[in-house]
Write a structure and sequence with these properties.
This protein has about 375 residues and is α/β, with parallel strands linked by helices. Helix content is about 40%, strand content about 15%. The chain is built from 16 helices and twelve strands. Strand 5, helix 9 and strand 6 form a beta-alpha-beta unit. The chain is globular, with a radius of gyration of 23 Å.
């Protein structure tokens, strides 16, 4: 056993960060990690032992790149780069690893993120995908179908790419709706793609949203990253809505992956002469759910059909705290005590605000101290 202490050599006890670095340095993957864990009780102990037990086995030439002195030096650079770019991460060893990814056969070893990790706790999320060249019809669909869903507090997942993705995230930000962007590059400023959406990324984070990537900082937006990324998009949503897709669209990959996961897939019909949406018709032929109005998605999510009577811009709140309470409410019933905990607000004060919102038809008690947005 080497005289090696992670906390001294790497100045960290974060196994996730070490795993993330070695995923790059020695091309660590699931099969190699499983091999390591078959010989050692923990990943840290394997590193401390310089992978001595593994090196005895055949076909372990990938470990030739593991030189303790070099790894130690380069790891420090990697850790500093992650910190400088305000990037956080969780690995499959972390308690906070997304439950949505746990059953993926090729789940990411490490997830990098910026923003509010608690966004993953949103009870109802829909993944919305589509073309990078949206038509006027597709834009209208987002306004007429997605906007009311955002107003009801349903979370939105998309890929933060050009086109439909951008419109979806913009609508979520506009409506103060929880939104998660899953990208196909590193999260660092140099490699973030597309660069034109840097401001949108900042807005999402500012509004309490989340940006995820399975690719380490410094990873460019390689074309093959995006089809792989689509399985994460499919996994995060309770439902996948394809707004606009041609027959060769990457959105169909997301839809197919969602179906394999047992997720609900929905799309909206179009003209048979519109080549940009022939993928929609194919999905309908293959059994996807028909969507033409917000209520269709609400029913597919097993939620009561309950549209808001007004929009956020028209509401006149009595105070900021009242507005915060209203924003916490959604179409999904929430227990009074849970709302109090999430907002860190005294139950008596919360009850007063809910009563005032109820008077204005902005909140509805559905029994047993369960509240939804009015």
């Amino acid at each position: 056993m080497l005289d090696f202490d992670l906390s001294k050599q790497f100045n960290t006890t974060d196994e996730s960060l070490l795993l993330g670095y070695l995923e790059i340095a020695i091309k660590l993957n699931h099969s190699r990690l499983n091999l390591i864990l078959s010989k050692y009780p923990s990943f840290n102990q394997a590193v401390q032992d310089n992978f001595f037990e593994i090196r005895k086995l055949p076909k372990t030439e990938w470990l030739k790149n593991f030189e303790l002195q070099k790894i130690t030096t380069d790891f420090q650079k990697f850790a500093e780069f992650v910190t400088t770019n305000n990037i956080h991460l969780y690995s499959i060893f972390s308690e906070n690893y997304p439950i949505q990814f746990q059953n993926l056969p090729d789940k990411p070893l490490v997830i990098y993120y910026q923003g509010n990790w608690q966004a993953l706790e949103q009870k109802k999320m829909i993944t919305v995908v589509g073309s990078r060249s949206p038509t006027v019809y597709a834009k209208k669909l987002i306004n007429q179908i997605l906007e009311p869903l955002c107003e009801l507090g349903i979370g939105v997942v998309s890929g933060l790419a050009f086109g439909i993705d951008t419109l979806v995230h913009q609508k979520a930000v506009e409506k103060n709706c929880t939104t998660i962007g899953v990208i196909g590059s590193g999260l660092d400023e140099k490699n973030f793609y597309p660069k034109e959406n840097r401001n949108l990324k900042a807005q999402i984070i500012q509004k309490g949203g989340l940006i995820l990537s399975e690719y380490a900082p410094g990873t460019p937006p390689n074309p093959y990253n995006f089809p792989k990324r689509n399985r994460l998009l499919a996994a995060l949503g309770d439902l996948v809505w394809v707004v606009q897709a041609s027959v060769k669209s990457g959105s169909l990959i997301t839809a197919n992956l969602a179906q394999e996961m047992g997720k609900t897939v929905a799309t909206t019909p179009s003209s048979i002469y519109d080549e940009t949406m022939l993928g929609n018709l194919k999905l309908l032929k293959d059994g996807a759910n028909f969507v033409s109005e917000p209520e269709d998605i609400l029913q597919l999510l097993d939620l009561a059909v309950h549209r808001p009577i007004t929009t956020n811009h028209q509401i006149q709140f009595n105070n900021d705290a009242e507005k915060i309470v209203w924003q916490q409410l959604s179409v999904e019933p929430q227990l009074l005590q849970d709302i109090s905990k999430k907002l860190n607000m005294d139950i008596c004060e919360l009850s007063q605000h809910l009563t005032m919102l109820e008077i204005q038809n902005l909140a509805v008690c559905v029994g047993e101290n369960m509240w939804i947005r009015g």
